[in-house]
Every structure is written in structure tokens, then in C-alpha cells.
Write a structure and sequence with these properties.
Blueprint (H helix, E strand, L loop, with lengths): L1 H30 L6 H16 L5 H14 L5 H25 L1 E5 L13 E4 L9 H10 E7 L4 E11 L2 H7 L9 E7 L2 E6 L3 H4 L12 E2 L4 E8 L3 E5 L13 E5 L16 E9 L3 E5 L2 E5 L7 E2 H4 L28 E2 L4 E5 L9 H4 L2 E2 L3 E10 L6 E2 L26
Antiparallel strand pairs: 1-9, 2-8, 3-8, 4-5, 4-7, 5-6, 9-18, 10-11, 10-18, 11-16, 12-13, 12-15, 13-14, 16-17, 18-19
Helix pairs in contact: 1-2, 1-3, 2-3
Amino acid sequence: MTAFLRNLWNNRTLRKRHKELRVTVRELLAFDDDILSEEEKERYRALQAEIRETSKTDARNIEILEKKLAKLHDRKEFRYVMRNFLDVLAVALAVAFGIRGLFMQPFKIPTSSMQPTLFGIHYVDAKEAEPYTGFMTKLFRPLGASRAKIVAQNDGIFREGGIRENRSLVSVLFSLVNPAEFYIAATRVMIGGDWYCLPGHDVVNNIYRYLDLDPQNRTFRKGETVMDGWVSSGDHLFVDRISLHYRPLQRGEIFIFNTENLHTLYDGLPLAGYYYIKRIAGIGGDTLKIVDNVLYIRPKGEKEFRRADELCPQMKKLYSFRGGYQGHAPLGLLADEQEITVPEKCYFALGDNTNNSLDSRMWGVVPHRNIIGRPFNIFWPVSRRWGFVDRLSPLDCATRFPKKSTQPTAMRLQ
């Protein structure tokens, strides 16, 4: 009885092996048709015929056929390795682009218009920011920011050399030893005949505007610190493209949109940059005006204006005048208590950094068709803003503007 069962099991295994041989050869002929030569195809067909003629329980011949197939189809050959690699790569890219196109799209903050809620490339003062910098931010800062420190080696006038350069490959490779020194684009400046390098090409907007005084054409003494800080790479976030389909945009929310068919009112030129990020100040039917740097909204169907922060809790911090928040400046379409009514299926967009924001005050409303999505979370760099967007209270310091600067001092603290 035991021998009978063992023989039955062996025959079942042999039939399975025989079937796998038939299926494998048939699939290889079909799937590899584009990379097989005619000679190789004939070998496969000959093997296919042998398999058909071999008994399904002939253990010896099945083993011989398996060895022939292994020799004929060597999966370690370069073409098969590359084909498998490209197949996996194609699937991975399809999944990645599918997620990007349908669900989450990466986005980099391009300018300072949404500070201090969201930051573009900006200067962080090392000493002044110390009380507001957590352990994780200090730990990862060299990976997401470049050092911008200049101590005058000799007396002289600070002059920007007007030289924009990309560092040599050797210089960049050496800088890998210290991640804080890793940057490719640089600007050369001079003090007293000595040259210094600052990270980036747009040092005026990314560094000088955050200092108390523009260093250009100022005289510095030997040993005097011109600047001592970091140039942060700016916030990188994921954009939620799904929730728009079941949850309409509301006043006070931050949103991302494209600039198709949007033009500045003063010269009619298209907006620079394809993607913008702003905060929604008004939705269809709202009437808006700014009084004493406070936005007032009269919702559709109502007779009285109300402060924006009464209607939108997210805007309360904008009128705290703490941590860099400064309310809304009356400019353009909302200058001098001027009123504007937002058309249906449109949005009025304002930047949180009101004095440094090109927004709906200068180019009008955003049609609904231009909407891309909502910002979801900041994934890089590690900072106090890391995580869900627009969740933080202002830094506990007054919004103060230094002389000859458009950026409040709080902007260089975070």
C-alpha cells in the first residue's frame, strides 16, 4: 500500500514537471519573439516537439529535457538580465508617475511669498536662530542648507564681483566631506582684495534681504563678521490632488494652481513660473477690501463686512504681528479700501508675506480650472515646519522690519 502511494505521488510530480516544461517553452517562444533569432526559435520548437513525444511519467527523459531547456535559456545572459531590469524599471516608473499624476505631486516652494508659513530659499542666521532651533533641525541642517559665513580677512569695501559660477567637479567632491559646504552654484564677492564664495546665484534675494543692512558697498574691518548663517534649500512638499474632488476649497486654505492665462494687470505680461502657491482670501461671491492691513470679507448674500480671521481660523496668526506675520498690505486691486467681488468658480489668492508677494492684488482671480491641489506635508528639509502644512503658531517674537530691508527679522530665525 505504501509503495503504491509513493508511486502515485511520484507520477503526479512528474506530470507537473512535464506540464511546466510545456508551458515554459510555449511562453518563451511567445514573450521573447522579438529578441530570439530564427535559429534559436527552431531550437525551442524542436524542444517543444520532444516534450510532446516524451511520456509524462518518464523521469529520466524529463530530467534530460529540463537540462536542455536550462542550457538553451540561460537567464544570466546579459539580454535577459537587462530585459528583467527594464521591466521592473518600467513598472516602478509607471507606479511613481501614476501616484504623482493622480494622488501626490512633489512641489518646491519657489519664492518667499508664503513666509513664514512656507519658505523658499532663504538665509537663516546661525546665532539668532539658535533659541528656535530644535535638535533634529540642527542634526539635519547641513544636509538641507549651505553655510554662508564671511569674516573679513582685511579692511575693505564689500563688493559683489558680479561673478556667477558653477563650482568645479573637484571642488564639489571635496565638499562632500562637509555637507554644509556642498553647493554647485556660487557667487563670488570681494572685501579688501580677498575673494569669498556665497552659495547660490541670487544672493540679493536669498541672503542680503534677510540682513539688517545690505552689505554691498559697506566698509568692513579685519576680523569683522559680515554674515554667519545658512542658506536653506527651501521647503519641499507633497500636493494632495484627490481631496478637491470631494471637499471644496475654503477661505483661508493654502492651495497650488497653475498660471495659464493669468497676466499682470499693469503690463499684461504672463506670470513668471508655471506653479504658484498662495492662501485663499476669497471664494466666488465674496466681496473683499483691506483696512489698516486687515482683510475684510462680505460673503455672498450678506450685508456686512467681517474680518477675515473671524471667518477663517487659519488667518488669525496673520494678524498676530508675531514671528514675521504682518497682515495684508493694501496694494493693487485692494489698495486704499478698494473693494472687489470675486466671480463664481474663482478664487482670490494672497501671499502670507504680504510685502513680498505677487498675488491676486496684481493679476486678478484664479479660475477653478487652474487648481492643482492642496499642500499636504513638508518632507524636506527637516525644520520646525516639517510635517503637515500650516499647523504651527507664529514664533514668539515681534514682527520687526530692519532698515532698508523688506524681510522681517523673524524670517531669518527659522
